[in-house]
Amino acid sequence: MKYLILVPDGCADRPVRELNGKTPLEVAEMRHINAIARISEVGAVKTIPEGMKPGSDAANLAVMGFDPAVYLTGRSPLEAVSMGIDMSDTDVAFRTNLVTLEGEGAYEDLIIKDHSAGDIPSEQGRELIAAVEERLGGGAIHFYPGVSYRHAMIVDRGKTHCVLTPPHDVLTRRVGDHLPRGEGAEEIEGLMRASHALLREHPINVARLRAGLNPANSIWIWGQGKKPMLPSFYEKYGIRGAIVAAVDLIKGIGLCAGLSARDIPGATGTLLTNFAGKAEGAIAEFRSGKDFVYIHVEAPDECGHQGDLPGKIESMRRIDEDVFAPVLEYLRGCGEPYRVLVLPDHRTPIEIRTHSLEPVPYLFFDSENPLPTDADKAFSEAAGERGACLDSGPALAARFFGGSR
Fold first, then answer.
1. 3-state secondary structure of 71
2. Is the pLDDT of residue 280 over 60?
3. What is the pTM assigned to this prediction?
4. Rounded Cα gap, residues 300 and 295, in angstroms
5. Structural contact between residues 394 and 66, judged by C-beta atoms closer than 8 angstroms
6. Which of 46, 187, 188, 397 is disulfide-compatible with 180, CB 3.0–4.6 A?
7. Domain map of the chain by residue range?
8. Which are the contacts of 49, defined by CB distance < 8 A and separation ≥ 6?
9. Measuring CA to CA, which residue among 117, 365, 83 is closest to residue 250?
């Protein structure tokens, strides 16, 4: 049996006025996914446990079958694993975004314009984080480069109880209303302030401003946690698998669970990602003997954060045409039965430009047990709400990998 989970991150949404009350998912051209939806189970699932925030860390853990309430120690340590950082038991990892702050005057009076600094290229991001490490790192604190705007800070014997806010949750808002609070807050705020004084004059940002691009003029620190301990995916399900993703967080979850993580050239986590390369990578993993591939595509989520409605719709067309269709064609011809699960990890509604807590739609297809054709079925929020609504991602994963539909 082969197993495919496709996660179009944040693709689920809310009705949009400009779309005459439909969602981006309902209007996107997804002929391959919707064709298989007609013979699949389509329902809704709550990927975020009660009392937890709708972060990609919790949501993707749940989709893979790990209860976030038990296993989530923080977002950044999962990313640090993917980045190859060797964390000790006393280290605390922090996600370190390169962000765009806008305005004049004191740091606290600036506005959080862009959580991704215009999806800054990784080469520029690495150079800026190197400058931050040179000036602000040392002793117990060190900064490590990641992909695009996503980087890491490791603090030996750092504090984990400081209240830190994801920058994508507070876009267009005043910095001073969302600065760190609690134990260790003063040190983290000091690093953020010092980084602004350093980065706003950096030649890369001077050039970006001249080109009309958002400068990466500050770091923003959040998502802290200690080294995670996930059970082995193989011991849990008896299945060997791989992750195909551009995002360190997703790779880190897989690596912590004993899955392999394939790097895809040109995979950026944005609308400009290598969609076709992700399909090629997934097929290569299946051909190498893997039973399971988890394909994560970040583009719909990034478009949601940017408020880019056309981009979000286009990202879903590309996922359907360039990612899902080739992998499905391979599975149909591989000579083995197969199961397919398509679902976002969480919703990223255009109207709020951040994640929300509503259940997400899912599509569950079993080649050995296709359902009778229903021409009215489609992969969408409304279709999901009309079907079954499962209480948790781990419950859906247990059915997908273990039981019959």
1. helix
2. yes
3. 0.84
4. 14
5. yes
6. 188
7. 2-72+229-401, 91-225
8. 58, 62, 67, 68, 69, 392
9. 83
In one letter, which amino acid is 6?
L
What DSSP state is assigned to residue 106?
A: S
* Secondary structure of residue 348 in the 3-state scheme: coil
Q: How far is CA 255 from the centre of its chain?
A: 15
What average pLDDT score do residues 249-260 get? 94
Per the document, the length of the chain is: 405
Q: What are the pLDDT digits (tens) for 127-166?
A: 999 999 999 999 999 999 998 999 999 999 898 889 999 9
Q: If you write DSSP's letter for every residue of 197-233 in order, what string do you get?
A: HHHTTSHHHHHHHHTTPPP--EEEEEEEEPPP-PPPH
Rounded-to-integer distance, Cα 319 and Cα 186, Å: 43
Q: What is the DSSP pairing of strand 91-102 with strand 111-114?
A: antiparallel
Give φ, ψ of 105 to 5 degrees: 95, -155
Identify the architecture of domain 2-72+229-401 in CATH: 3-Layer(aba) Sandwich (3.40)
Per DSSP, the three-state class of 38 is coil
- Read off the tokens for 36: 């298989």
For 179-336, where are the E strands, in sequence order?
A: 218-225, 241-244, 260-262, 292-297
